[in-house]
Amino acid sequence: MNAKPYNNAPISRSAMAYVLAGGRGSRLMEMTDRRAKPAVYFGGKSRIIDFALSNALNSGIRRMAVATQYKAHSLIRHLQRGWNFFQPERNESFDILPASQRVSEDMWYLGTADAVFQNIDIIESYDPKYMVILAGDHIYKMDYEKMLQQHVDEGADVTVGCLEVPRMDAVGFGVMHIDEHDRILSFLEKPKDPPAMPGKPDKALASMGIYVFETKLLFDELRRDAADPHSQRDFGKDIIPHLVKHGKAIAHHFSDSCVRSSFEQNAYWRDVGTVDAYWEANIDLTAIVPELDLYDRDWPIWTNSEITPPAKFVHDKDGRRGQAVSSLVSGGCVVSGASLRSTLLFTGVRVNSYSVVENAVILPYVHVGRSAELSNVVIDRGVQIPEGLVIGQDPELDAKRFRRTDKGICLVTQNMIDALNL
């Protein structure tokens, strides 16, 4: 018997959020050599996965599960430390579900749908009436309660979270072809000529990888799909197209449930899946009025908050002044006679005297030696930058030493530093 919400209680009270967090994110290059994409740092204190989980929590969902697979230790450790406050006595739960050959001794998760199918028995033990399936690797703020409400009101078999994008930008997405009532007529995976939205010939509707199902129907679909030898065990390639053809699939517009503070004018969603996109989204936060408001206390981004001292700025002489302009500096950082501009420092970074840092995203516990000059860089966690190192001024030299993108952003890891033989 499915648990029923109290009269007038939000639908989220009877829902479970299931986050798919097993992907590597290979376009982030060396940043995902040791961690899955959802575990990549973002915004000074958070990890990427914190956004999907915070959206669920802020939406009123109190049952969550995270399916992990690729190099999951960093992610699991973060979840254990930062998301361990759920209380079973309050009808709350938080499960971490690594691929563990529970169905077959030689079978990992074969796809996004299989990552749910293999854990049906665990989900059934909580008896949620609705399932909210989420991708764990995007940056956005969204009230899932509104999407759940649309799903119930429409009597849908599946409701798909969708984002309006310029039509020809949709070639890299799964695209929904909808009618004027938001019913999905067809689902096209990375089409060369994406169908336009009704009344908006220059826009297409791209899937966000967010799905709402009634739990029983989802389980029936997963079992049907698991019995199909031709299936790729994937929501976007198999489950959703089947329901579009044989059931009622509804598109939910992100603009209808996007959470915005008074400082946010546009609906904000980012896939930070490349080094350039990752750098740009982090640097955007240093703007006077950034497009994403992390200071919104009505919709906080929950995370594992390390116990750190305040950031510290020391020395006040010409050429050796600890200062930061248009920058975000996290706890435990020491800016010792160095100059920062349009830079984001994660926890515990130290930047030493006479260094100049601009347009930089510097991950936790990096140590920047004296007289370094860094610009247009992403520095991975724990890197020791030698004294006097210059990055961002000589494109040819940078490309030989580091991972330099076509847009001129350099990703720097400790292995790259060790190979310099300075």
Automatic annotation (TrEMBL):
Name this protein carries in UniProt: Glucose-1-phosphate adenylyltransferase
| Record lineage | Bacteria, Pseudomonadati, Pseudomonadota, Alphaproteobacteria, Hyphomicrobiales
The Glucose-1-phosphate adenylyltransferase/Bifunctional protein GlmU-like C-terminal hexapeptide domain covers 309-412
GO-annotated molecular function: ATP binding; glucose-1-phosphate adenylyltransferase activity
Q: Which Gene3D superfamilies match?
A: Hexapeptide repeat proteins, Spore Coat Polysaccharide Biosynthesis Protein SpsA, Chain A
* Keyword Cell inner membrane among UniProt keywords: no
Provide the function of this protein.
Involved in the biosynthesis of ADP-glucose, a building block required for the elongation reactions to produce glycogen. Catalyzes the reaction between ATP and alpha-D-glucose 1-phosphate (G1P) to produce pyrophosphate and ADP-Glc.
Q: Which Pfam families match?
A: Hexapep_GlmU, NTP_transferase
Site description Could play a key role in the communication between the regulatory and the substrate sites, residues in chain:
Q69, W108
Q: In which pathway does it act?
A: Glycan biosynthesis; glycogen biosynthesis
